[in-house]
Amino acid sequence: MRFGETGVAMMVSVRMALPLLLIFLIMIHRGSSADWGVSYSPSHICALKNSSVIMSCNYTYPTGYKIEKVFWTKTNVKDKEDHPDLSEDPEYSQRLQYLGDKQQNCNIRLSHVTQKHERMYYFRFKTSEYKWLGKPGVTLTVTDLQVEAPERVTEGHNVRLTCKSSCTLTDRATFIWYRNSQPLTERRDRNNQLLLQSVRREDAGRYSCALHGHTYISPAAQLNVSYPPRNVSVSITGSGVIVEGDSVTLICSSDSNPPALNFSWFKENQSSAVGSGQSFSALQSGRFYCEVHNQHGSQRSDAVTVTVKGRLLILYISVGVICGAAVIITVLIW
């Protein structure tokens, strides 16, 4: 190749290289797409109803750019010219607090969240030339609490109650339990279960649960404790002393769950029952007691005494006149 041809070739090479060099310099100046980004940690949040949530967020951009605007949005679809600013939404304006800055931190706090706030949220930032939306965003799920308990448990057995949520709570939770709206202060645990060992009648009631540091309390679930008859007793209508031919009513009462429906009456020293039902009419003297049954057991009462006396007969016998006065003898016969 002669010198003239060489010069032409070099000029062509320079002309081709200049655009490539310019593109390379622009890329270095403006940064690659990997320099622009938003990261969320965690990317999924499970929060308790009516609680406050902090969404942790960081963003990056190439050196040389100045951030002009930062905001969060609840959609990745543009509304008119840009994504809607969450802080300008009436539903969020009083519950959203931006905790970040215009450098790297983009944390926010959402207060008093409910199920209607469940969605994906995105962070958006702008420079004079570029806009960036961090997607996928951070997903918020809101849960309430429900107590799971057996409908009925027998006295003396163990029972386990569970405080359930629809998702695994993001924050490490300490559970608090209530019975009949009163806190069980000895039951505060990171475990979401309440174990009642050797259940007693006194353990029956309405149980609810909550998280320490939160105001929300779950709806109450009823725990019903079944037990055999206790405190069986007999009461007498009247004195227990009657006249032959009359009767006295004996009433049997007990404490049991479920309520006893089977009542049997016995007279001491007799093996067979003399009556049934919660009340019994005694016609003769003796000591009577009742025996009460339900599906969990039975118990008998102490005996009560019934006394039957014969009727009083009054006889007037005239025996004559003594010293001008009539003499009458009165005879009482039982």
Name the features.
about 325 residues, mainly beta, Immunoglobulin-like, seven-stranded mixed sheet, six-stranded mixed sheet, 1 helix, rod-shaped, signal
Please describe what this structure looks like:
This protein has three domains: 33-142, Immunoglobulins (Immunoglobulin-like, Sandwich); 144-219, Immunoglobulin-like, CATH 2.60.40; 227-309, Immunoglobulins (Immunoglobulin-like, Sandwich), CATH 2.60.40. It has one helix spanning 3-30; strands spanning 37-40, 44-48, 53-55, 57-60, 69-73, 96-98, 108-110, 119-126, 131-133, 138-143, 146-148, 152-154, 159-164, 175-179, 182-189, 193-196, 205-211, 221-236, 241-243, 248-257, 262-267, 275-276, 279-282, 286-294, 297-300, 304-309, 313-322, 325-333. With 334 residues, the chain is mainly beta.
Helix/strand order, N-terminal first:
HEEEEEEEEEEEEEEEEEEEEEEEEEEEE
The CATH topology assignment of the largest domain is Immunoglobulin-like
**CA gyration radius, whole angstroms:** 45 Å
- CATH homologous superfamily name of the largest domain? Immunoglobulins
Q: What's the structural domain tally?
A: 3
So what's the overall shape? rod-shaped
Question: What is the average of the pLDDT values?
Answer: 84
Helix content: under 10%
Can you identify the CATH class of the largest domain? Mainly Beta
DSSP helical segment count: 1
Structural class of the helices, strands and pairings? Answer: mainly beta
Pfam families: ig, Ig_2, Ig_CD22
Transmembrane segments: 313-333
Signal peptide: 1-33
Keywords: Immunoglobulin domain, Membrane, Signal, Transmembrane, Transmembrane helix
